[in-house]
Amino acid sequence: MRIVFMGTPEFAVPSLEKLMASRHRLMTVYTQPDSPAGRGRELRQSPAKRLALAHGLTVVQPISLKWRGEVERLASFEPDAIVVAAYGLLLPQRVLDLPPLGCLNAHPSLLPRHRGPTPVPGAIMAGDEETGVTIMLLDAGMDTGPILSQRKAPIEPEDTTGSLSVRLAVIGADLLMETLEDWEDHLLIPSSQDDSKATYTKRLTKEEGEIDWNLPAVTLWRKVRAFQPWPGCYTRWQGKLIKLLEVTPLAGSGRAGEVVVLKEAPEVLADIHVGVMTSEGTLGVRRLQLEGRKPMSGEEFVRGQRGFVGAVLPS
């Protein structure tokens, strides 16, 4: 088959690697335009672009696919199928209609659950015990197209969006190649999604990372994991930000936001020496980072910042 691949972040890399190693003819790679990053705001290439260029592939980076000229350029590659993995742009109908075998998308959730741009953090924040990858045919909606295949994966208690995304990317790449073969051989029957069971996610912002200590400890534990590695969760103390890197929900009651020493933490949590009271339970803090400082354990932080214990953090 003649394949056009569309993908941008690290999640797309395993799928692109599989396609490059397959018998299919990879015509080109579409990815998001280079974006400014870091303190110097220098333009940074996407992971998919770096991989494609390293293997001598043609890379296309349109701002939009709605322009007639862009559709004509895409049509010139004469793809039998378009394969999408976290590309970042909705495909207009004229693009969806181009390839005879349609546009196959790898979405990191068990659709119709967690449609939208942040399905991995969405699954963690919802407290789901499992998630997975769905291979679907794209239509004009937001992750509403018919399903070709799915594969489940457990969400471990220590999983963050970063660690879970890595696993799902590998699962998705394998499932994508299997599905692509079966779809080409007309062995699959697309299954419509049950819209009544759909849930939706939205893009995360840095502002949403601020901790509200009036929420239960379990909710905050999920949020800290879901917001790693980006945008991160934080609180404020003495005019500075404190990033919360690793936390654990514990029992306890008290004033929401008050920092306490955990003198009777269970043996399995012996490395957690400080916590913050919430509306329901205590959020044990294993690792954190004060603005302008390196990450450290809660115990190290308390030794160096003696006024921290007893403080009441804002909500």
| Annotated CATH homologous superfamily of the largest domain | Formyl transferase, N-terminal domain
CA gyration radius, whole angstroms: 23 Å
SSE order, one letter for each helix or strand: EHEEEHEHEHEHEEHHEEEEEEH
Residue fraction in strands: 25-35%
> How many domains, as an integer?
2
From the N-terminal CA to the C-terminal CA, the straight-line distance is: 55 Å
The average pLDDT value, as a whole number, equals: 95
> Helical amount among residues, as a percent range?
10-25%
CATH architecture of the largest domain, by name, is 3-Layer(aba) Sandwich
Write down how many β-strands occur, each being a DSSP E stretch of 2 or more residues: 15
CATH topology of the largest domain: Rossmann fold
Largest sheet: 7 strands, mixed
- Mass-distribution shape: elongated
Widest β-sheet, arrangement of strands: 5-2-1-6-7-8-9
Please give a quick description of this structure:
24% of the residues lie in helices and 25% in strands. It is of the alpha/beta class.
What are the defining features of this structure?
2 domains; 24% helix; single chain; 25% strand; seven-stranded mixed β-sheet; 315 residues; Methionyl-tRNA Fmet Formyltransferase, Chain A, domain 2; Rossmann fold; alpha/beta
